[in-house]
Write a structure and sequence with these properties.
Blueprint lengths: L1 H16 L2 E6 L2 E8 L10 E5 L11 H7 L2 E5 L2 E2 L5 E2 L14 H16 L6 E6 L1 H12 L6 E5 L5 H6 L7 E7 L23 H11 L4 E8 L7 E8 L7 E6 L13 H9 L5
Length: about 280
């Protein structure tokens, strides 16, 4: 029974650490979790974390948040016709999904700023996979909302690539495996994977760099953590409008992942985001 009590206590600590809240948006009760570090400064930064398709992970950046003193919010996508939770990014099987997640995330950020006094400028968004697709969409549709976005194993859908005429620069950081079987590095122009047509990952990064009017490009190759010792090619475009930058970490032979086994993903994300703190 002592062990049982301990397990229950650990579970509840985790839940209290990242409590669940709801927010009414477009007549739907939306769910999110929020973690605020104990020593969080007033007017502190906020990072929104968007889960992958059908896969909420409501504490993945908590330790990073505690270390660097930013609030982290984990909103939850709604269920689509297949019964899985996700973000409405225009996949073919989402054709009947009427939810506007850009609107929800905009309202959520405003709500959190109002309720908790988070910074109006220092708001960032990281998204895994389906959440990464949402990052590209947010950068195009609400460029004033986030100081920077970071798709991890994410994609730029072809429809967005062709329709994105926004000119406001948004710094972007993509981490992506070259052997990703789900979000294919080379793109999927013929929709073989069923997610819809999307462009190659390097093209998405170059498109964002060109849109931001970046003038410098630097490439460094490093070796990731043991035991994988993965080769990581870091492409960095800088000198953009309003000092914007675009980074692409090319994880050689990497799959569909957050890449915690190869680097401290949380610290790498914050290293990027913190460059744009105002």
């Amino acid at each position: 029974t002592v062990l049982m009590l301990f397990v229950a206590a650990v579970g509840s600590v985790r839940a209290d650490n990242t409590p669940e809240y709801t927010l009414q948006c477009e007549g739907i009760e939306r769910v999110y979790r929020l973690h605020i570090p104990e020593n969080m400064p007033e007017n502190g930064p906020l990072v929104i974390v968007l889960h992958g398709y059908g896969n909420p992970t409501p504490d993945i950046l908590n330790e990073t948040a505690d270390r660097h003193r930013f609030a982290v919010c984990y909103p939850q996508g709604e269920k689509d016709g297949t019964g899985k939770t996700g973000w409405n990014v225009g996949y073919p099987f989402q054709h009947d999904m009427t939810i506007d997640d850009v609107e929800f995330l905009t309202q959520l950020v405003r709500h959190l700023q109002q309720k908790h006094g988070f910074s109006k400028q220092n708001v960032f968004c990281v998204g895994m996979s389906n959440g990464g697709e949402m990052c590209y969409q947010l950068a195009a549709r609400e460029p004033d909302l986030f100081a920077a976005v970071a798709p991890v194993s994410g994609l730029m859908m072809e429809w967005l690539y062709k329709s994105d005429n926004s000119t406001h620069p948004v710094s972007l950081f993509e981490i992506h495996g070259t052997d990703d079987k789900i979000s294919v590095w080379e793109g999927d122009p013929d929709n073989k994977g069923g997610w819809g047509e999307y462009i190659p990952v390097p093209l998405a990064a170059h498109f964002c760099a060109a849109k931001n009017r970046c003038t410098l490009m630097q490439t460094d190759t490093v070796i990731g953590k043991a035991p994988n010792n993965r080769t990581i090619v870091k492409h960095r475009f800088s000198g953009g409008t309003n000092d914007s930058e675009v980074w692409l970490y090319e994880m050689i032979g990497g799959g569909h992942s957050w890449f915690w086994d190869d680097l401290d993903t949380g610290d790498e994300l914050w290293k990027f985001f913190s460059r744009f703190l105002k």
